Amino acid sequence: MSAVxxxxxxxxxxxxxxxxxxxxxxxxxxxxxxxxxxxxTKIFSVMGGIGSIFAxxxxxxxxxxxxxxxxxxxxxxxxxxxxxxGVVAAIFGLIIPETGILPIxxxxxPVISFIVAALIGLVxxxxxxxxxxxxxxxxxxxxxxxxxxxxxxxxxxxxxxAGSFAFNDAILxxxxxxxxxxxxxxxxxxxxxxxxxxNLGPDETQYRTLYVAIEKAALIMVIAGFASLTVxxxxxxxxxxxxxxxxxxxxxxKFMKSVHREAYKVVGTGLLPSAEELE
Amino acid sequence: MIIDPISIALITLGGVLIGLGVHxxxxxxxxxxxxxxxxxxxxxxxxxxxxxxxxxISAGFMYNFLATAPGGFGTSDxxxxxxxxxVGAMIMITVTMFIGQLVYVYCVGVPPVSAKxxxxxxxxxxxxxxxxxGTEGHGVPTVSxxxxxxxxxxxxxxxxxVYVQLMQIGxxxxxxxxxxxxxxxxxxxxxxxxxxxSYNIGGTIEGFHDPKFKRVPxxxxxxxxxxxxxxxxxxxxxxxxx
Lengths: 279, 242
What we know:
The complex is a heterodimer of chains A (279) and B (242).
Chain A: H1 15-32, H2 35-39, H3 46-67, H4 76-99, H5 109-130, H6 139-162, H7 167-176, H8 180-199, H9 206-228, H10 234-262, H11 275-278
Helix pairs in contact in A: 1-3, 1-6, 3-6, 3-8, 3-9, 3-10, 4-5, 4-6, 4-8, 5-6, 6-7, 6-8, 6-9, 8-9, 9-10
Chain B: H1 5-24, H2 29-33, H3 44-68, H4 75-108, E1 113-114, E2 137-138, H5 142-170, H6 176-201, H7 216-241
Antiparallel strand pairs in B: 1-2
Helix pairs in contact in B: 1-5, 1-6, 1-7, 3-4, 3-5, 3-6, 4-5, 5-6, 5-7, 6-7
């Protein structure tokens, strides 16, 4: 149940800037994992995780904009549908060039995933407004954004676990068969839905919500690094974990500072009183 | 064949059954968490997914057992897997409702009552005089409990239908890659349909006696289109991996 019913979200960076950051940053991160093949190493797997952070920022901002209208069913649903659409689109896009059904070079995989995700998002958004009559003016646009961000998060985290976005060679044995895809699915959904869910209310501000988004994305990146211990080598996994931890600490600090600055008062309650003290 | 129309039709039907099942589950949302509305106090997606994923696990266990047994996988086996998924989902949703009910009755101290009908359509018990003022009912009355169990049935059958079809196209019941891929795809299709259905009911519903239940046709059309789209995408993938 959204506390702020009706009305668009305001303040902070304009939506188009965030969209650009998310799309370019997300895709760049996924493609930069290709440096692994160029230099015959796994150390650049960390780029996938960093790309997923950009995508999470975009997804969380899109959730923030659409949920400001009040969905009537709580914020978590939209995060789960983001990754639900994202996982179907991401795997389709990555696998289609490799099956050889269509003459598409493998390198276009992430872009195809992204386009398919946007397409599914458009269909779901149009149905929400036209058939289910949700009457949220930005529903179609937001669903496209959320599905696109979901697929980028999924691909970014998968690439950082497996060290490459090649489906049959890396993601299928490294992320899908091992079951890490479930962590990526739920963890990715959490990063997109949690920031606005945690911050919603009349005094919600964009930068505070996005601090939480970056901080949560960094935490999932640490988990992805931990998962990649069994998939790629320990040094690359450690790099992913350390970078994730560093980003987490920096942005958690920023979030706490903004909470302390914007709250009317922050007081410590101390420990629970003992039975004698209560009498 | 890379695009098999029967598989696509069955996956779409599975998605529609999931969307239909969500409408039967008594979802109370945040008001029910404070015992101010009938149903279990959490969102549609969490309840449906909890039950549906449990159904998926029990269906997966049954499928693995039957498909790896000598003699292959026949039509009667297909029905057994669907039944297994349905029972798994029904157990999960009934346990959730029952434990929730214990908390509502013995911890919060409210009588299970529906505010949408004057008499319980199943037991015929008077409802309206037990609804606390300013609330929309509490707990899980008999009719909602029965409705929720039916919802688990539809959700479980739908989820396992999607899963079994994907596994049949993958055609390698013991390959962990195929199992995981079919599982995550079924989960994705499940979430898309559950969320569309929950948008249709607008957060809370008591069960099949709720006036909101009349909105079901709209959800069926939406889930049909969404599942069809997902099925057209999923079928070539599973065919492509194997």
